[in-house]
Amino acid sequence: MKNLKRIFGTLLLTAVLFTSCETNDDGDIIFRPTAEDFNELKDTALENLTQNFTFNADDGNINLTSDKGVEIYINANCLTLNGNAVTGNVNLEFVELFDKGNMLVTNKPTMGTLPNGDKALLISGGEFYVNATQNGEVLETSCGFQMSIPADLTGGADNDMTLWEGRIDADGNLAWDEEEDNTGQGGVFAEGNQYYGFFQQFGWSNVDRFYNDPRPKTIILVDVPDGYDNTNSSVFISYDGEDTGLANLDTYDSNTGMFSEHYGQIPIGLECHIIFATEEGDNWKYAIKSVTIIENGVITITESEMAIATEAQLTIIINNLP
């Protein structure tokens, strides 16, 4: 019996050391996911949405078609490794995100950087990741590449769309910076039911425009249960009526235990859904709350509002929001 107790104690100590935990008012231990748990869940979602192509650089002009009908045009003669021309087989990774569900599970919201450094919601014509490698070495292109993107995937052509470059920070969060050259060989235009984009480099890119709402704006706060922060959970905002934009609250105050949209860019009176997302048992743990934004509002997420879903289930749930 003493040996059994000793073994049980060792297992419990190991669980506590490798898993974040809290205690409730009754003194019961409540386990929380680690940052590694949550990151692995998002990485898996991205891997599940990654398409892989192989082509021979010696073939010159390459035309590839994605699962959703995006045409990718690459001049393989422009591919280089450490400044040297590439020959032989090349591997291409491609990700295309057109809906809020996939944007959420991969942690790729549509938040664009304003001229003053603040961030505001973008409405997207598609988020894309393109990465060319050879034998595991990342390649560059000296003449860019092009894509033809079906506009009906995001509600039809919008001539206000421009190109944006994705920037991932040290915490793995993505924000979008507008390309300086959005004309000619560095831009995007709509013709018929297609967007035609001219991309200068591989990586994350986006066809986007800022969300436009004339109403006065405000800051909002979201209070989440103890033990959750911006390392093991995220808070998003789904604007009702917008299927291709997903905002997020990118700051967390450890003193208050609240996530914040601290830029003051949320329209007062906006009808939206606040989405809390985290990990539990290799699945998604989430809560969704329908709210109307008030000035300096505080929205509270409770443990009792949370549910468990697989990646596929949560994607459908988010895409079915109004």
From TrEMBL:
Origin: domain of life: Bacteria
Name of the protein in question: Lipocalin-like domain-containing protein
Lineage: Bacteria, Pseudomonadati, Bacteroidota, Flavobacteriia, Flavobacteriales
